[in-house]
Structure formats: structure tokens, C-alpha cells
Amino acid sequence: MDSSISQQPRILVTSTDHLNDLVAGWLQLPQLALDTEFMRTQTYYPLPALIQVNDGQASYLLDPLAIDDLTGFAQLLAAPDVVKVLHSCSEDLEVFQTLCGQLPVNLFDTQIAGAMVGQGFSVGYGRLVEQVLGIKLPKDETRSDWLQRPLSEAQEHYAALDVEYLLILAQNLQQQLGGLSRLSWVQEDCAQLLQHYQDNQNPEHSHLRLKSTWKMTRREQALVQHHCHWREINAQRMNLPRNHLLKEASIYALAESKPKHISQLRSLEGLHEKFIRRDGQALIDMIADCLAMPEDQLPPPLERPLN
Predict the structure, then answer these.
(1) Is 273 a catalytic residue?
(2) Is 189 a catalytic residue?
């Protein structure tokens, strides 16, 4: 089979009215395949560029740069009776949250499903399609500029193929899971994935992203926690990637060295002069407050991660 030739129509959606007409029909279906394209190099939040939907009959390319109102799409995401099929969806969740403040209800992640039927853990979409369906998808547009308009023919073709085969892949995996009595396992894991994503959006949980903190003393853990919370709040406010604002290595260095004066920050790797002039005193004050905190007021110690 020539995988470069789509078997279904490709439809570009650029108006709210067109989108709402489609949503009315999609709400009657048992499941849809979804994917997103976005750009993010210098920002905390992704810059949404495209939403792909496949309903089994056609692939629809929703242009969020042209559609004025995505309320209808948010309603679709929230519909409990429509399964939303995605693959390795953590970044897609960010796009949905950024665009319309709604995460998909009733999620089916084909990466999780693939692992449950023995295809391996954390397998990429193209590889899983090849393993399960025997189809090799093109990947030549993966790193293209999705914010350019108009999209090229190659971009539209690539984006449409992703969701066209995603729905077919999901149906194959669901059949296998049914035979193994493991479909409920995937549903549970997908629900946990959504909950984990929501938990991670809380700045107070941002220190859990760092995997080696459990090895530190309890007070050093508290320092890491405070610096991560500060970083998350300010990265969101400034719309900067976390590590562009403060690298993880610098967070650990601050917790271990416990500087008491701005001049001491200049000896720590990763802290540049511009950052120190702007934010150095806030870090020093934070460290002083944490060092003065009574032992019984420190956050509970972190346990070693299971994986």
C-alpha cells in the first residue's frame, strides 16, 4: 500500500460556522481521532497552529488562526460519549488547554494501548502504525513551520495522514484489547494520565518534575520546592520556557549551596548577570525564609520515585 496517498478526503476548516456544523455531527459518533500541530521554542505556552480531526470518512484540518470561536470544539472535547483518540497526548493536552480551556473527556491514547498489547512502551506514532498496520507514514514535515499561512500541500497532506491512520490504528488496538480483556486497563491509565496532567498544572506540584530531589536533605528539598514554584509562576507570567528562566541544574545548585548574598549567585553555573540583577534578590530572600523555617514546618520529605 502506498502510504503517501490518502484514502480519504482532506477538508480545511477556517470558519466558526463550518466548525459548529461539523461538531453537531461529530457529537453523534462513537469516537474521533485528534491531533495537533503547534510551535514552541521561546515560549512557555504552545502556539497552536492546527487541529486535525478524523471521523472515519474524512480528515478535517481546523485552523485556529482563522476560526474566531472554538466553543463548539471545546464542547466536543467535553462530550463524555465520544471517545477522543490521540497518540502520546501530553503536548496535545497543552494545546487544548491553551486554546479553549478544555481537556478531552473519555480519552484513548494509542501509545498506552500499544504497550498493553505488547508493542512496547513509549513507541512513537509512525513506528506503531508500521508495527500494527504495516504502513509507513512520511515524516518529512514534522519540523516545518506550522504557523505559516497558507499551509503547503505537503503540510496539509502530512497532517491529514496522521489522523486518518490514527483512527484505524485505534480500532485495531481496541479489537486486540477486547480479546485480551485489557480495554478497561487502558481506560484507567488514560484517566490517570489526564489527572496527572491536571496535577502538574498546579505550580505547587512543579517540583515533582525534578526526579533527583528525593536524595537531598529535607531542607534542601524545601528549597527546591520553593524555587520550582517560583519558576513556574514566573515562567507562566512571562511566557518563557521553564529552563530559559531557571535551569534545573541551577535549582539544585541553589538548594545545595544556600547562598546568602547576591554576590554568591555569580559563582553558580547557569545564573547570568541579567537574571541575577532582575531576580537575584527574590531568590536570596526565598532561601533566607526557607532556612529560617522551623523543622516541623518544612514540607513532608519526598519519597524515591517508583520509576
Answers:
(1) no
(2) no
